[in-house]
Each structure stands twice: as structure tokens, then as C-alpha cells.
Amino acid sequence: MINDFNSWYKTQPLFTRTYVSLLVLFGIIGKFKPAYLWYLMFDANKIFTLQIHRLFTHYFFSGVLSFSFIFHLLFIIFCIKNCEVMFEGSNYADFYYMILYFFLTGDIMSWLFDYGFLSAAFCFALIYVWCKRKPFETVRFYFGFQFKSEYFPWVLIAFHAITDQDIVQDLIGLGIAHSYLLLKDFLPVTHSIALLETPQFFKNFVNKHIVKYAPFARNRFNQQQFQQPQRQNFFQGQGIRLG
Predict the structure, then answer these.
(1) Which residues cross the membrane (predicted)?
(2) Are the CB atoms for 122 and 137 separated by under 8 Å?
(3) Which of 179, 87, 164 is nearest to 125 (CA)?
(4) Separation in Å, CA 105 to CA 5, 76, 108, 183, 243
(5) Which of 104, 161, 152 has the alpha carbon at shortest distance from 129?
(6) How far apart are CA 237 and CA 210, in angstroms?
(7) Looking at the DSSP assignment, which residues form a beta bridge with residue 241?
(8) Integer Cα distance of 121 and 124 in angstroms
(9) DSSP E strand boundaries for 42-197
(10) CA distances from 30 to 33, 38, 68, 107, 120 (A)
(11) What distance, in Å, lies between the first and last C-alpha atoms of the chain?
(12) Residue-wise pLDDT tens digits, 16-28
């Protein structure tokens, strides 16, 4: 059983398994040493005293270790993995640049809306990008409910509203992701303005220091060095089960 988990864990994309591992770690800490979570929270006053880690650590806590937390982790893996695999290959650096954009804009939202932790908004932003770029995937939700992925963000918001969960974080994540797509995909085409072009030094850093730890991305990257670029079709759908 441990070997099966080991094999499954190693097949997960690099950022997905790293992020989920941190969620589990801080979930355990929150379970047994809840006072330590204060050091992870977003606190603008503390950031100005050079506690810079608070700009990022508030994305890595999504609840204390519990049975419901495990099910929530499965959903988080679904969100991050589907988004990450879209970028793996020669454009893997674009994924990390997007993550950096989400973190920094999310920090502004945390300050405006007074949120100590923003992992839910972060995950919603990732799933929103995936749904916009892969709108014709079939998602199977709870109770056998099926729909195209383009409707998934709205179904998720409605589900959270019905089950009395926090939809403000959903809306924050939607706003962050929508602004990213506007700057990354829309403006370069309509107005020839590329405000979120990944800098070359950032690409070089990711390709040199990060891709080597992501086997799937590394294989795709190596293949693309020897192949002519092919047009990617974002409109091929396949069934994806969730829940």
C-alpha cells in the first residue's frame, strides 16, 4: 500500500505534489499546534516589519487535518493538476509566472478583504484558468451531475452558496484569474499589449532549476527542443470525474 502511494505521489506534477504536501504539513500543525498558524497568516503590519514570508505562506493552509480535509485535498489536487499539466513543456515557466501573479494579486485582495488565509481563492483561480482554456472537457460532479468544464466555476459557486460555504473567496479567485486571462490572452490579441509576458530570465531559471525536478515537464521540454512547434488544440474534450 505504501509502495502504491509512493508511485502515485511521484506521478503527480511537481507543483501539485509540493503544494499538497505543504497543505498536509500545515494541516497537521494546525491540528496539534494551532497557535503556530499565526506565523502563516497574512498580516500587512507584520509584512512591513520584514516578515516577507507572510506574502506567500497564507496560501498554504486550507484547514486542520480531519476526514473532511482529506476529501478537500482530492478536490485541490483536481484543481491544481489539471491546470499545471496544460503548461508542462517549453512553457512550464509560464505556469510559475502565473502562480506568482496569483500570489501577488491575492495579497492585495487579502489586504482589502481582511483575509488571513486565501488558499480557497487560489485554487478557484487555477480551476477558472483551466475551465477557460479547456472549456469542452466533461466534468462529473457530485450525485452524477455532468456538465462542460466552462460551467464548472459557476456550478462551484452555486454549490458553495447552497451548502453555506464562503463564496467570497470564490469570487476573489474568479477576479484574480479573470484579470490574468485578460492581461495574458486577450490584450495581446486585441491591442498588441503583452503585460504578462514571462521574462526570459524567469524562463531560464525555471528551465534550469525547476524542470529537472518535474519528470513529465522535463520529457515534454526535451521533446519540444527537437520537434517543430505544433498547434495546440484546446477544444478536445475528455471525461473527468470529480467526486
Answers:
(1) 20-39, 59-80, 115-131
(2) no
(3) 179
(4) 35, 20, 5, 13, 30
(5) 152
(6) 29
(7) 140
(8) 5
(9) 138-140, 146-148
(10) 5, 10, 15, 22, 17
(11) 22
(12) 999 999 999 999 9
Average confidence score pLDDT of the chain: 87
Spatial contact of 42 and 116, defined as CB atoms under 8 Å apart:
yes
Beta bridge partner(s), residue 146? 140
Contact between 148 and 155 (Cβ < 8 Å) = no
Cα–Cα distances in angstroms (integers) from residue 153 to residues 35, 89, 128, 204, 222, in the given order: 34, 26, 6, 33, 34
The answer to whether the CB of 115 falls within 8 A of the CB of 134 is no
Cβ neighbours of residue 41 under 8 Å, at least 6 residues apart? 54, 57, 58, 116, 117
Within 59-91, where are the H helices? 67-87
> Which H helix or E strand runs over 215?
helix 215-226
Cell readout for 147 is 456538465
pLDDT at 201 over 70: yes
**Gyration radius of the chain over CA positions:** 18
Least reliable range by pLDDT among 141-145, 193-197, 204-208, 229-233 = 229-233
Helices then strands, each counted (H, E), the chain: 12, 3
Q: Is 137 exposed, middle or buried (0-12, 13-18, 19+ CB in 10 A)?
A: buried
Note the residue count of the chain.
243
Phi and psi of 117, rounded to 5°?
-130, 145
Residue whose C-alpha cell reads 479567485 in the numeric block: 173
Residue whose C-alpha cell is 520537434: 227
